[in-house]
Amino acid sequence: MCKHRDHAAQILQRHRSLAILRFLSRSPEYRCNGDVLLDWLSHLALTCSRAELRTLASFLEEGGLLRLKDSAGFQVLTLMEKGLEIAEGRDLFENFVRQGPECPY
User: Fold this and answer.
1) What residues make up the domain containing 29?
2) Considering the domain boundaries, does residue 71 fall inside one?
């Protein structure tokens, strides 16, 4: 049972990662605060906790896909060039679901 739960968590993380990058690619100045992203993920049925979002955002930052900044009690995520290339389907990154032509994110 645990293996299935871990596999499901990995699938959700791959989809959340792409959804975050694509959302940031359409945001003014390529940035957004974490609370808005939590609402967007929930809208896409990719709901996660604030702690899960922070962990995922840190992973994306380590990969050079986005930059994190804490500001007045909330987290701001800013898309980097490498993240934009993945969001637009011009590059691939390990542990990401590849977007299809009609990606809903």
Assistant:
1) 2-87
2) yes
Does 76 map to a domain? yes
Taking 80 as the threshold, does the pLDDT of residue 91 lie above it?
no
- Residue 103 covered by a domain: no
- Three-state secondary structure readout of the chain: CHHHHHHHHHHHHHHHHHHHHHHHHCCHHHEEEHHHHHHHHHHCCCCCCHHHHHHHHHHHHHCCCEEEEEECCEEEEEECHHHHHHHCCCCCCCCCCCCCCCCCC
Predicted local distance difference test score (pLDDT) of residue 3: 74
Is the pLDDT at 1 greater than 60? The verdict is: no
pTM reported for the whole predicted model: 0.88
